[in-house]
Every structure is written in C-alpha cells, then in structure tokens.
Specification:
- The chain is mainly β.
- The protein is built from 5 helices and 24 strands.
- It has helices spanning 2-17, 205-215, 224-227, 310-314, 338-348; strands spanning 24-30, 34-36, 41-50, 55-56, 61-64, 69-71, 78-83, 87-95, 98-106, 112-118, 121-125, 129-138, 143-144, 151-154, 159-162, 168-173, 177-185, 188-197, 232-234, 254-256, 276-278, 298-300, 323-325, 352-354.
- The strands form 5 sheets. It has a 6-stranded parallel sheet. Strands 1, 3, 4, 6 and 7 form a 5-stranded antiparallel sheet that branches. Strands 10, 12, 13, 15 and 16 form a 5-stranded antiparallel sheet that branches.
- The protein is rod-shaped.
C-alpha cells in the first residue's frame, strides 16, 4: 500500500510539472536576408525552439546553394561566411529534419565617383557669407558617406572659404565678380558657380515693398541680378519719394509711378529699355535723366513742376507716332517761348503732344 501511494505521488508530480518529451519544431537564423560586399564576412547564428516555444539545444548543419562565398564551418549554432563573388546564394541550416534558410546577396562595393555641391549656384552680397556642402555619389548614382574630407578652394578672387577641409564650408564674399567654390577629393572635383554682387538698397520702403512683391522675395537680400527679371512695375499712389535702387531694373519696359512724391528721377537714367513711363502727379522739376532713353514712346508727365522740356527734344528716339502728355506744369507757353518752341519741334517730328 505504501508503495502504491509513492507511485501515485510521482505520477501526480509528473502531471503537475508537465514533463513531456520536447520536440524541435522551429529553427531561426539570424541575421536574415542580408547584402554583403566581396571579401566582407558575416557571422550567422541559429536557435532551435520546441513546440512550446522553449529554446532547446540542437546540432545543426549548414550549406550554400552555390559557391559565391565560403562557409568557414558547416556545423554548429554559429558559423562565419565570407563573400567572394557577385550574386545571390541561399544559406540553409538543418537540424533534426527541420530546415530554415536566408538569402545572401553579394553586390559591388560602392566607390566614390562623383562629387556634387549644394547649392550648385549662389548669389552672395559683398561681405556676406554662404554655406556649402559636398555630397559624394557612387558609380550607381547613389549618395554615399565620404570617408575622406574634401578640400575647398575658390577661383576668381571673389572670396575665401573656411574651413578649407570637411564636408561643409562657409564662403566669405569680398569682391564683386563671378567665380567658383570648388570641392576636391584626389582626382574627383566639382564646383558651384558663385556671383558676388553688391546688395541693392532701397531708400524708400514703399518702393522696396512693391519690388519685393514683384520678385516674391519677402525678406531675403535683393541683388542686381534679381531685378533683371522685372519688365513692368505698377506703383501708383504709394507715397514713394525716392527711386534709389530702381536703376538695377535694367530690363524695365513699362513703369507707372503716378501720384507719388517723387522729385528726383536720376535713377531712371539707367533704364534704357523703357518704352512707357507715367510720372504724372509728382513733384518733378528736372527731366534731364530722360534725355537718353531713346526707346520711350509713351510719356505721362502732367501735374508736376517741370519748367524745361528740351531734354525730350534732345531725345532722338521720340518721333512719329509717339505720345507725350505734359499738361499742368510750370512751362512758359507764351508765343516764341523756348518751351513752346520745344513742343513745336516735337510736333514736327510726329510726336503727339498734349500740353
């Protein structure tokens, strides 16, 4: 009886501890599906798991689907593989009839073949700075990390860079002109075109606002080259008193500045492409800056304080079919006056004049 109790107790203990035979059901390889370069090595490990998820000891064997690489051992839970030739192979492990596999892809190692600089072009004001970054690309056109720092130089005598080595540098602009910021690693080099210009300063904030709106530049510096894109400008009744800065709008053809507080139009001398100009309702006395604007064909100058229109007579571009409005100024229109003679001279050339 005593022995039966002991047997029953042992059976009960076995049931409580769940002691049953474990069977290998899963094996896992790590890492899975990797890419290597020729002559690169990689260690693979494998673990076995029973049906309840517990890790159990195994004695696996390893094999490759082809010989593009070398297994330094074919048994054990950890082996080392060395890549040799380009291609793809399947690494398989087997233990107790259970198998698992992973893919090894051997690709050509990326080599630096090209450098690019960002930004590739830049306009920089005198005494201003600009940051540049060198980026490497491999033979496939993919960006790669630079293992060697580029060397930076500047051509054209327009400025300097600091530091002279490294992935990034800062350009310091000193002299107006165009040059290049160059990044080099051994025989590989590239450059960014840099134009150094004086910053355009507008004395009148209202004129600057209308220019910035036209350029769609809210805060960034304005350079002379930016203003070359403006072909027409409408700035009526904005209380503009100074035209300083407009001289860089060298491609302006149509300029409308009616009803402002302008008295000095000297900056217009540089706008040789002007065709239409409206300066009515201002405070202008001297129109001599219009003398050499030979492309003008429509001019509105009414309601100013102009006393002398001989600069318009001297403008050889004003002729048949052109139009001049000069009413309500300080002209002497009495018979035989110089102003009336000037008007008659324009009329004889075929200019339509309202005076």
């Amino acid at each position: 009886m005593k022995h039966k109790k002991i047997i029953f107790a042992l059976l009960f203990l076995l049931l409580l501890t769940g002691c049953t035979k474990r069977t290998l059901t899963i094996i896992d390889i790590s890492p899975a599906n990797i890419t290597l370069y020729p002559n690169e090595t990689q260690t693979f490990t494998v673990i076995g798991k029973a049906q309840n998820g517990e890790i159990m000891g195994i004695t696996p064997s390893w094999s490759l689907s082809n010989n593009i690489g070398v297994l330094h051992s074919t048994t054990g839970t950890s082996i080392t593989f060395t890549a040799k030739n380009l291609g793809e192979t399947t690494l398989t492990v087997i233990a107790e009839g259970i198998t698992a596999s992973t893919t090894i892809t051997i690709v050509e190692e990326p080599i630096l073949t090209t450098l690019i600089i960002k930004p590739s072009t830049a306009n920089v004001g005198i005494d201003e700075i600009k940051s540049f970054e060198a980026i490497g690309k491999d033979q496939f056109g993919n960006e790669i990390k630079l293992d060697v720092d580029p060397i930076w130089t500047v051509t054209g005598g327009i400025g300097t860079v600091e530091p002279e080595t490294g992935v990034n540098t800062i350009f310091f602009a000193y002299v107006s002109g165009t040059g290049e910021v160059v990044a080099s690693i051994d025989e590989i080099s590239t450059s960014a075109t840099v134009t150094v210009e004086p910053l355009v300063v507008f004395s009148d904030p209202n004129l600057e606002i209308i220019i910035r709106n036209e350029l769609q530049k809210v805060q960034s510096p304005i350079f002379p080259s930016d203003l070359e894109s403006i072909h027409s400008l409408f700035a009526w009744n904005l209380e503009i008193s100074s035209l300083d800065g407009i001289e860089y709008c060298v491609n302006l053809k149509y300029l409308y500045l009616k009803t402002n507080n302008i008295s000095n139009i000297t900056p217009l001398m540089a706008l040789t492409k002007l065709e239409e100009l409206n300066l009515s309702y201002n405070n202008i006395e001297d129109i001599s800056p219009l003398r050499d604007l030979s492309n003008l064909n429509i001019i509105y100058l009414s309601y100013n304080s102009i006393e002398d229109i001989t600069p318009l007579v001297d403008n050889e571009g004003l002729d048949m079919g052109d139009y001049l409005q000069i009413e309500y100024n300080s002209l002497d229109l009495s018979e035989e006056s110089e102003d009336l003679q000037a008007i008659n001279a324009l009329l004889k050339r075929g200019v339509e004049v309202d005076y």
